[in-house]
Design brief:
The complex is a heterodimer of chains A (about 280) and B (about 210).
Chain A lengths: L2 H6 L3 H17 L10 H11 L6 E7 L5 H17 L3 E6 L6 H15 L8 E6 L3 H10 L1 H4 L22 H4 L2 E6 L5 H12 L3 E5 L4 H10 L6 E2 H12 L4 H4 L1 H31 L1
Parallel strand pairs in A: 1-2, 1-4, 2-3, 4-5, 5-6
Chain B lengths: L3 H19 L5 H36 L5 H21 L4 H33 L5 H17 L1 H6 L2 H37 L12
The chains are: A alpha/beta (about 280), B mainly alpha (about 210).
Chain lengths: ~280, ~210
Amino acid sequence: MPLYEKLLKVDTRIIYVLVLLAMLIPMIKPMGLPIGVSENTRKVYNLIESLPEGSVILVSHDTGPGNAPELNPMLTALARQAFRKNLKIVAMCLFDQANGPQFIQDSIEPVAQEMGKEYGKDWINLGYKMQAQQTLKMMIDDFWKGANNVDWSGKDLSQFPIMANVKSIKKDVAVIFETTVGTPGYADWMTYVAEPTGKPLTGGASLTMYSGVQQYIRSGQLKGFLGGMRGAAEYEKLVGKPGKGSAGMDSQSIGHLIVIGLIIIGNIGYYMQRKAALKK
Amino acid sequence: MQKELPLIIVFVSGILVMLSKFFNFWRLPELVATLDKWSIVMSTFAMLMGIIELTRLHVNNVRRRRINWYYSIVTLLAIYLYLPVVLIQGPEGPSPKWITTNVSQPIGSAIYAILGFYIVSAAYRSFKARNLEASILLVAAVLLMLGQAPIGEAIWSGFPKISDWILTVPNSAGMRGINIGAYIGIFATSIRVLLGLERSWTGSGS
């Protein structure tokens, strides 16, 4: 078998093993590569930092299990920054009914407990809300109605002191923090909430969405952006507490190198094959 | 009337919602808010219909011993065992939490993670510099991968800057063009639906 054919026909199993090792080894033995902080991440951090004490951040955590490793660390880092500044978090999800509320709980509650913050007073999990666009439209003027008057566990919102000061997005929310994997996403929040009310919209998304949101960042409609696990790692760095986002960065680095290496091998094989064909 | 009534409802509702964006007279905002509420309630009914339809389909699969009928049993068990557990304990109860954390999330993550292996394999097999366009795509992809991972920055500090430029300038321009085109398409389709010219959603074809 000529060399170019060997280069063009690397066994799929070898590729899979390489990818697996690229993911596993850095997790077991981290390299600790330095992570530079991008301007977009800094904007998110600065926006939250600029809020006065007691301000309400409305979080919409719209992800399923597939993208949760990228987006959950963003929420944890946000909670850490917000609670440190005595800000309030009102969280909900519009995407995954089964997993979304649990992601919110698992990402925020441990930080809240660690920092002495109380559920219902400093933060609340409203769970999943159906029909994103209609819910958002309602919440602008009547937040409780949009939330169906209950939190995740079905308890009446009047039981929670935090909700006494959150009657509408228009009057009581300082910033919207949206983490998304597509739809519902930034387009919905911009169209129905951020543009009509002038509330600043920020947040993060999976890396696959990074190219799609650039236009919103450039136009200023999105105030900063956390791009995938890298964005989460950068945010963790700014908040000063490395977490799961930072832990995944070495694996991502080696994974990217494996992909680039394989693409180069494939192209060398392709070039040699073409040359051989021309000779014939 | 069976065909006309849905068209009339869509036309009236659509016009009311559109008017509410531009005018504030009579009780229009309240009316549109009520329509929004109805829409949420109807979604709940749609979910109920989905459960009924799913049950019918899978019960038939089991009854008629269709191919892979045993997976239908798993689906039915998942629906009808999880439902009472949540109804009794609430979504935040220990059992739903255990099921979500130890079954739903790992399965979802695993399925998504498998994609990573396929993508690497597909990139190796298909990403070839066959012509100028493919070569530009290839170079852009490599630069972006190096710019997004810390190792790229460790190799050369210019990679993140190049990656950033690709994303913010040519990429933004392309995405805006695509989005404008898509929204014009959505607008045209919406007008066709409102005027009853597009009727495929009624099940009767255009």
